[in-house]
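Narrative summary of target 7.
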Amino acid sequence: MSPHAAQASGRRELRLARRGGALELLALPAALFGAGARLRGALYERGWFASERVEAPVVSVGNLSVGGTGKTPAVAWVARELIARGRRPGIASRGYRARPGEESDEARSLARELPGVPHAAHPRRVEAARALLARGCDVVVLDDGFQHRALARDLDLVLVDASRPWGLPPPAEGVPPVCALLPRGLLREPPSALARADALIVTRADQVAPRELEVLRARLVELAPGRPVATAEHRARALRPLAGGEARPLQDLRGARVELLSGIGNPEGFERSVRALGAEVAAHRRFADHHDYAEADLAGLGARVVTTTKDAVKLVGLSAARALDAWVLEVEFAITSGAPALGALLDALAPSRAERERAALHGGLAG
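Modeled conformation, tokenized:
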């Protein structure tokens, strides 16, 4: 498949963002999907489906929509906050689209961000959590776990992307985006599901107008009454050469003419970040989220290319990528409001069973 064909087939959200026509035929299967999601939720709430606990607290970082809210940087932020509190976190994930024996895109990105923090992937997240505890972790960070209710959690942090709150971009400037469940939209659950979150974090809050952010926050307070609503930004941190080596200052992008390469859930957010640094974006080659790159995908790219950390872990092995002057825009997750509330929730996490046993042993020895 040519690069242009891959892009056309991969950006389904651009097609779903439109209104009217044959797309609206998807409303019926979306209604059936929503009925199934509500039934499943009710079965968990009433105890017909059981959530299994492990011997350590579990912090879930998730969202309502398919991809694109910036979960990987948020997971890294949670892990660092736990480390700062003296905890030993491990990250549990499903390992989405990873081949047997290989790590997922997110796992490889997190390994770069959090060297030394264990990661385990398994379709049954409870098995991944147990594997982490066997490696000495005392708290589990569940990546993309809001809908994975088979593993009981102690804290549910749910991300909402300010630029695409319900998964789809606006069909045109000033036009409200479609808010619909799969397959008509990108929602895995109806917005009312946010009521079971412990806290909401509005990501990319700096990429929308203040009034738009205010309206979104008010809507989230309605959907999840009594829950703290924090805001966060994905701040550019550095430019790292794809081939490795010394980082370049972000100022080098100012006035530079670049081409972008991405296979992520929200390519518009990535492009806005690059433009905000003063770069001139000549073209943006967009692929589907989790795209597996081939040499042909890079044909015709210009001399200066900027990509994401998620894409970099797959590009670095391609000879065509190494031949480019390719740079990786590294970002960090920064809480801009609501940090005390989130910190209090993390502080309140109970100790793991292993921690309680160590404390009891030390107490007995001291006595």
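The domain at 51-228+338-359 is CATH 3.40.50.300 (Rossmann fold).
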